[in-house]
Amino acid sequence: MKEQKSKNAKEQKSKNAKERKSERAYRIIWIMGQADAVATNKQKSERVYNIDNHNIDNNLIGDSRKGNNQIDNEQIEIREGDYKRQNMLEEEIMRMPKKSDRIIINGELPLCGNISISGAKNAAVAVIPAALLVDGWCRIENVPQISDVEILKSIVSEMGAKVEVEDSNTLYIDASNIHSHVATYEMVKDLRASYYLLGALLGRLGSAEVYPPGGCDFGFRPIDQHIKGFEALGAVVTESDGIVVANASNLVGAIVYLDIVSVGATLNLMMAAVKAQGTTIIENAAKEPHVVDVANFLNAMGANIRGAGTDRIRIKGVEKLPGKASYTIIPDQIEAGTFMIAAAATGGDVCVRNIIPKHMESLGAKLTEMGLSVTFNGDWIRVKRERPLKSANIKTMPYPGFPTDLQPQVSALLTQADGTSTVTEGIWINRFKYIYELNKMGARIKVEGKKALIRGATPLEGARVDACDLRAGAAIVIAGMMAKGVTELTGVRFIERGYEDFVSKLNSLGADIRYDG
After folding, report:
1. Distance of CA 238 to CAs 132, 173, 199, Å?
2. Does residue 247 sit in helix, strand or coil?
3. Could you give the residue numbers annotated as active site?
4. Using CA atoms, how far apart are residues 452 and 445, in angstroms rounded to an integer?
5. pTM for this prediction
6. Looking at the structure, do residues 81 and 44 belong to the same domain, yes or no?
């Protein structure tokens, strides 16, 4: 009898070890960003993957977007029980070198030519959590290849969703078997948009536990409006050390008035209310393009949302979101604006394509005020600098006002404008940390509370500088392209959170930027 128990224990131990090896190998597969073939439900006993220049989560095992980290183009078959091949795959990936976190910028080169804009980062990081609400599968197109998306893919996979990469910018997500309502610290530590998981999980499972977001640090992100809305829908919400736990046996529609215009609260409440009983009305809602995009995505999956893009959103709850549909994410308003500003800063002539002109009106108006030639035509905008820049006063505001995510970039540009410019930050309390880096390069900027006073035009000199967040990093790259000499920028990982192939796109326009190492 004892011998039989010992034998059973050994067999169970062996089985558990094999399962751990199998799970580890499949986790490696899931973080690959460009699998040429993905296993289907029919391939339960035999799964085949093509490996060729995959995107790998930069924080885990390196990044091959530039083609520097290559695995020979071969077909690797993974069969149940073939653990030797699984280990070989894992070891091969772990040997891939990590891309440098530093770039070298040679300045004083004008940007000229055409550039196509990728899918919107701010929309993608909300649409992917919203996909957890879908009872079937969904296909999401024009997804940007950025590190925030890679992190979210990993998170929803761990929660039970099936995530497949059809091509470099298309995701297939099936959340039919979602089982976890917890987003742990390890999951979200590098992701600023993790709070979107609250509304999605509460709406889908009736429970959500989400740890504080990571990502860029430009001030505390208050969540009181989110909690107020969840409680109005019938949820019980507790918060301790930033960890938010929400539970509801039955969500019921309500009228929610947001005390301040909040993109995050608007999106979270919209997701939580999609399957609630009755009708939910969000008053004083945010109008940002990505709010509209998430509403359109949910409607394409079977939701009933009206009024997105206005300050009053009406959500009639539905029992299920059947999905089984495709949706294309809008072009990135902020990436487009960054390239428009870069063209102006370098004295260039750039046509920014694949954009929605209406989203660019506030920036276009300011660039015109500064003396630039800005031409709108269909789905493209041309920015050309033909004369010295004029100073300007800018205040960031909710859409359709000037976007806070373009504040650092336009501040870098204003260092080259004649006279004194004023930039007032109307959204965040701590978004001027990058000013220290610009001043190291010769800028003359003084910060007074939420206001920056910029004296120009001031010649910039190359220096060793750091990116402290995503948009600050883009601003410093623009400053480096304007500066005389060489600029060494550390913290490229922040830029890669929100810009797809930023360096290669700039180089295609005539910039001289390379990764160091």
Report:
1. 22, 30, 14
2. strand
3. 216
4. 7
5. 0.80
6. yes
